[in-house]
Amino acid sequence: MTSAPRDREIAVVAFAQTAHRRTSEELSEVEMLMPVLHEVLDRTGLKTADIDFTCSGSSDYLAGRAFSFTLALDGVGAWPPISESHVEMDGAWALYEAWTKLLTGDADTALVYSYGKSSPGSVRDVLTRQLDPYYVAPLWPDSVALAALQAQALIDAGDTDEPALAAVASRNREAATTNPHAQLRGPVPQGDYLVQPLRTGDCPPIGDGAAAVILAAGDRARDLCDRPAWIRGIDHRIEAHGLGVRDLTDSPSTRLAAERAGVFERPVDTAELHAPFTAQEVVLRKALRLGEDVDVNPSGGALAANPIMAAGLIRIGEAAARIHRGASDRALAHATSGPCLQQNLVAVLEGERR
Amino acid sequence: MSKEPVAVVGIGQTRHVAARRDVSLAGLVREAARRALQDAELTWADIDAVVIGKAPDFFEGVMMPELYLADALGAVGKPMLRVHTAGSVGGSTALVAANLVAARVHGTVLTLAFEKQSESNAMWGLSLPIPFQQPLLAGAGGFFAPHIRAYMRRSGAPETIGALVAYKDRRNALKNPYAHLHEHDITLDKVMASPMLWDPIRYSETCPSSDGACAMVLTGRAGAARAPHPPAWMLGGAMRSEPTLFAGKDFVSPQAGQDCAADVYRQAGITDPRREIDGAEIYVPFSWYEPMWLENLGFADAGEGWKLTETGVTELDGALPVNMSGGVLSANPIGASGMIRFAEAALQVRGQAGEHQVDGARRVLGHAYGGGSQFFSMWLVGDRPPDS
């Protein structure tokens, strides 16, 4: 239950990301992250010491070692000591934690970052370790296979077909042509089946990347940014883990989060959806009631660059950046986690009238 | 608009043991969560959000296990956050949950932390591969032992202080039914005769490896008014981090720990922690960290902490009891250990600590730390709401 109205306005005032690439083996995670941290601070003129709260998202399983986030902290420059936290989740949820911290009034500015390197291992196999360890993980069903189950369920329900999925793929990658950070820029062949009915073109590129966002409250946000992207609402919800108890053609958690975030109160002009697989965009468009008039994934979305643990935060950053530069007045940003869209976060960002 | 005051109205933990082979991960966390709900006389439907924490996923071999645990914790259809801040995570998790209430994002939040160490070998899980760490630095004890030596040299503390801490904590644990170690025949001589593991840390001065979970129900003023038992009120809470290694780092008394405590005391209006705080649950995984943290937390001047231990001030019936529950030295489900400190502090001010209750405890500190003495989280709880 969301209670009384909150009187603190909080905005995304800056966003930066890496050029996402298939591999960054010559860089450690800290080295990959550092330029992004510098860039996002430069955009606001803030220094590390000006940041009241820092929160990050990453995964030890991608890094292949325990406490991997502690090294990233060195990149932040946590000296003198800083008020800091970390979630073992996509950076979108780190942003959510930072948002609550700013709401309490204990902080006026927050730095949020996340990163993931998928290149050192086989990410399809790594993600199987996310599944129920007793009944599902021992079978090693990989992330593409599970997404294919979802795609087939959608096709069986008459919600889409393979040509429609191919159109989703080509539209996203076409949009990415103008995104210098994207890994796949411009159309790629749909290719052969990876796991039927998903072809290689229906699947996200595997790659490494990082992203960072700065949040600020009230007048501080106006000082730091000409046109802050105000977070009008943000909410996240999780569904059951067992795929057998879910309707994979729907995303009730996305719909509920969107309702709580106020998405349906007024139309949005832009939506950045974290849909790594084409069929998931179909599910999300339905849950979010997005019409043809909404510009979906002008960045190219996760089909153009999908650095795991950062791809959700990047959706919020991309939506905010469009508001910053006046290309959007009201944008929706979405992030997902877990198999087949198990957990979803939705934010509504707005620019002030010009 | 000021912050919503945060109250602890439900606390539950499992009986911490070396291996809970009778339950799955889901069964373990659900046991603690149900006990917290029972204590608060609430049901799953009363919970608006779940905030869960644990130490590295490698300890159980499940990546982001909260995805799988959503059903067991009644989180389906609700927001669920997963915190990971190394050893301090149990405390940080509680603070993230508390912020949701303080910011009025949610009315009532379930927060839980766990570790099922029997699923793997935590000592090697904590031993990073070369080149990230030099060889022969096996386990956390190998990392912390040199810093204890530095403290001994700096303070001139007698060699016996560590054993006194362990002897006290293990005796306190006998009064705590949830503690992992119940060593009924413990003596100071036995502690001092136990094998040396990482000089100067002996076997009996080391935390055990435990399976366990701890849960709390946090709510605001309205929820506290409906609570069946006296709530514990959060008077202050803070987190601080500093890098693992850097020139000038003081491993004996890290600046982040001092800053974190100072922030908590400022929020709570504490100016003399030694006099104004009635007890402390401090994260002491190796015995010597009691005197070290007493100084870092401002309970004693630099170099003087060991004297509080030696003179019995930190005993259960002393002027400043420390680790009344038996502490991390008597139960260490790593990811949960910080939350157990926070929860035990709350039990004390609620007057519900049973045999290890400190009479008249009104303000008690809960403390956790992690990484290379670099992540700190603390809260101070009281028997009355803030500003009353």
Q: What pair of chains forms the biggest interface?
A: A-B, 65 and 68 residues
Return the structural class of chain A.
alpha/beta
Task: Tell me the span between the first and last alpha carbons of chain B.
Answer: 18 Å
Tally of contiguous helical segments of chain B:
13
- Percent of residues in helices of chain A: 25-40%
Biggest beta sheet summary of chain B: 9 strands, mixed
Order of helices and strands of chain B: EHEHEHEHHHHEEEHEHHEHHHEE
Low-confidence stretches of chain A: 1-5
Mind telling me the C-alpha Rg of chain B?
Answer: 19 Å
Number of beta strands of chain A: 12
Mean pLDDT of chain A: 96
Biggest β-sheet of chain A, characterized? Answer: 10 strands, mixed
CATH architecture of chain B: 3-Layer(aba) Sandwich
Oligomeric category: heterodimer
How much strand content do the residues of chain A show?
Answer: 15-25%
Count of individual helical segments of chain A? 12
Based on Cα principal axes, name the global outline of chain B.
globular
Describe this structure in words.
The complex is a heterodimer of chains A (354) and B (388). In chain A, 34% of the residues lie in helices and 20% in strands. Chain A is built from 12 helices and 12 strands. In chain A, helix 1 packs parallel to helix 3. The radius of gyration of chain A is 19 Å and the shape is globular. Chain B is of the alpha/beta class and 388 residues long. Chain B has a single domain (6-121, 208-382), classed as Thiolase/Chalcone synthase (Peroxisomal Thiolase, Chain A, domain 1), CATH 3.40.47.10. Chain B is 33% helix and 18% strand. In chain B, helix 2 links the parallel strand 2 (49-53) and strand 3. In chain B, helix 3 (89-102) crosses helix 13. The longest helix of chain B is centred in the middle third of the chain and has 17 residues, at 139-155. The model of chain B has no long low-confidence stretch (mean pLDDT 95). The chains are: A alpha/beta (354), B alpha/beta (388). At the A-B interface, helix 3, strand 3, helix 4, strand 8 and helix 9 of A face helix 2, strand 3, helix 3, strand 8 and helix 9 of B. Chain B: Keywords: Acyltransferase, Transferase. Chain B: Residues 243-372 form the Thiolase C-terminal domain. Chain B: This is Acetyl-CoA C-acetyltransferase. Chain B: It is an enzyme of class 2 (transferase).
